[in-house]
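B., you asked whether I could sanity-check this one before it goes into the benchmark set. Here's the sequence:
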Amino acid sequence: MLSNIRQGLNSFLVLLLMGLLIASFAVWGIGDVFRSGGSTVLAKVGSQEIAARDFVRRFENLVRDNQARNPDFTVQTALAQGLDRQLLSVLIQSAAIDAAAQALGVAASDDQVRQQIAALPAFQVAGRFDMGTYRLALERNQISEKELFASIRAELTREMLLNAVGQVAQAPATMANSLYRFLREKRQATIVTVPESAVGDIAPP
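And here's what the prediction gave me:
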């Protein structure tokens, strides 16, 4: 799985598409790049795909949040700080966790999703869930109710999965081993230093 992640981060196609996205940001602005709803995929981890449209929407929100704190913050500022690459890295890591959750059959329930949405301060008025505020927030962030439910479900599922990893003593051995393979895979390498004196003379090319 980690090899798929590395391929997603380093492949020529991803880098090329990222370059095209950045150029589009600079020329047209963030919001107009994928208004047509294209389904171009930036990266794929297992069965989980990261759509360019989702990346653009999240990047747009990221820029907007920074502008709320600093009016001088621009798209060019975000790109210069490498926020686009950082965002893609986060999305790929999240996709890896989503793929692990899907393989293990872990998913948040509909009731958990509804409770989480109702508890979000952004959707509340005087401490209670307000449907009008909820609809307005969805419209302002250009996200459908279906997309919000999917996003909240994914976040809750990731939290459940990561909490299970943190409670190793209580987790079944099979589940712990599967989580280890999906989320804790590492590579080891041995570096051998050869002194120059051991190489001898090197013939000119």
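One thing to flag: The beta strands are 41-45, 48-51, 124-125, 128-129. Otherwise nothing jumped out at me.
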